[in-house]
């Protein structure tokens, strides 16, 4: 019995120390994003292009290009294939990666709960810049 207890303690110790100390949960990482980064992103995508500055339009273009290149659909879910380094290489904040990771996680939950099917077909018909129609009250042919 003592040996079994020692084995359990050893496995527990290995499991606890083998875990990275870095936060890996997207929701926890999202909570640590500076408020000014969120405000900046809302100011870019929350208003018409005609009201944006040249700098904001350039940032929006970079984000759209990155998402066009690194966003795909697998198993009826949006998958962001980019890494934080891809955002930084594009001249964007590393926090944008976390924001988009969380947003796609939330969007995927909504897709599941709404029973949306054939997301890959709908994804092919839309674009990052013009958007996607993923839910419609009309019957599809």
For this entry, give a set of tags.
globular, mainly alpha
Can you describe this structure?
The structure is a single chain. The chain is mainly alpha-helical. It has helices at 2-17, 26-31, 35-45, 54-70, 84-89, 95-114, 119-125; strands at 71-74, 77-80. A hairpin with a 2-residue loop joins strand 1 and strand 2. It is globular, with a radius of gyration of 20 Å.
Chart the SSEs and their pairings.
Elements: H1 2-17, H2 26-31, H3 35-45, H4 54-70, E1 71-74, E2 77-80, H5 84-89, H6 95-114, H7 119-125
Antiparallel strand pairs: 1-2
The count of strands amounts to 2
Multimerization status: single chain
- State mean pLDDT (0 to 100 scale): 79
In what order do the strands lie side by side in the largest sheet? 1-2
Broad structural category: mainly alpha
Low-pLDDT regions: 1-23, 137-141
Largest sheet: 2 strands, antiparallel
Q: DSSP strand (E) fraction?
A: 5-15%
Query: Helix and strand succession?
Result: HHHHEEHHH
Give a quick summary of the entry.
With 141 residues, the chain is mainly alpha-helical. It is built from seven helices and two strands. The protein has a two-stranded antiparallel sheet.
């Amino acid at each position: 019995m003592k040996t079994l207890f020692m084995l359990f303690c050893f496995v527990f110790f290995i499991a606890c120390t083998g875990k990275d100390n870095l936060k890996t949960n997207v929701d926890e990482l999202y909570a640590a994003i500076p408020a000014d980064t969120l405000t900046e992103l809302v100011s870019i995508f929350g208003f018409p292009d005609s009201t944006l500055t040249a700098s904001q339009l350039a940032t929006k273009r970079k984000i759209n290009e990155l998402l066009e290149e690194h966003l795909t659909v697998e198993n009826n879910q949006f998958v962001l294939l980019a890494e934080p380094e891809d955002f930084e290489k594009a001249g964007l904040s590393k926090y944008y990666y976390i924001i988009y990771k969380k947003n796609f996680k939330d969007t995927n939950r909504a897709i599941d709960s709404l029973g949306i099917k054939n997301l890959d077909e709908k994804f092919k018909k839309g674009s990052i810049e013009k958007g996607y129609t993923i839910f419609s009250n009309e019957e599809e042919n």
